[in-house]
Task: structure prediction
Amino acid sequence: MKPITALLLGAGSRGNYIYGPYAEKYPNDLVFVCVAEPDKHRREAFAALHGIPPEQCFASWEEALAQGKIADAAIISTQDRMHFEPAMKALELGYHLILEKPMSTVQEECIELEAAANKFGRLLMVSHVLRYSSFWAGIKKVIADGGIGQVTSIQLTENVGHQHMSHSYVRGHWRNSTLSSPIILAKSCHDLDLISWLMDQKCNRVSSFGSLMHFREDQAPVGSTARCTDGCAVERNCPYSAIKIYMETQEPNYARHISNDPTPANTLQAIKEGPYGRCVYRCDNDVVDHQVVNMEFESGANASFTLSGFTRYIARTVQIMGTHGEIQGNMEEGRFKIYLFASGQCVEHQFDITHDGHGGGDDHFVRSFVQEVRRFDKDQASGLTSATASLQSHLIAFAAEQSRLSGGQPVVI
Result:
């Protein structure tokens, strides 16, 4: 079967480590014919790997889309605040889209994107990849089959991990809500999407509390300096030391995100000169480091979500309480248990978590997109994470941030 041809707009982490490798593994599914990326090294490396000629390599998405429609699909993995314009232009040109989450950092633009996908009759799938993982799909099936009765409450916790928090949300691209978006949208629209999907009903009201409690200058230890390499007296005892995270941590490999060629010398230079070597207490970050969100759904069921940057491991844990049973699970362990009240039985499900990212969701997501494009019918366009399916989680995120900024006042969606 003929592969789907695609443009890649943004050859950063997702482009290079998710979409690119998928095309390498499954060349009969996906072939890249054009790349747009402002970083020359990344652009040329991606082009070389996928055999893209120089005349189809561009520094900006505007140049790439100025060619008109030259492929079946466009994959938009630019920075958060650069999603809306290329997505709208690509839809107008007739491209099917993979759009990285969040759809946009502006509520009205998310609504416009859903309307545009319907207007132009194009497939727009948002990268809420967790829905495609065996772990979450398994939980969804248990609920849909009535295994625990009617869901009354969901408790979902995202343990961000202290190193990931400092890398991405204190020093990194998503540190400042005016430059990217609030963390509840940038990071946790995944989780709000899962809750929305598992509940499968309208969310009526949202309230939220959270703050930037720790990563502030008034919390800096005595003896600390502006950069970890400036002779900081407490660097060896600091859990957020850039030297520890980028030069001494092997898994995950954070160094690959701060240098195109992360040799020890290049990594050290990036720490000394770039944003990732700054003291976590002296950055320009303003996103919260912990937050809770409470949701009320139309049936009367409710959900609570907890986000924390102060955990040892990166993990999502979940507890789902139904009228006839309960589910408890840990995504990173690939395991959930079902407790059935009437029989007292406990059934355990274990999934393979050794393959691709997000519990296997990344590859399944791209494969699903390819299949949806191949059988596309504009009168039945959907997809598990279509713009329509994904919109509610974005609206919950915007409402949560509005509530948090108003001191926890409930917001009606």
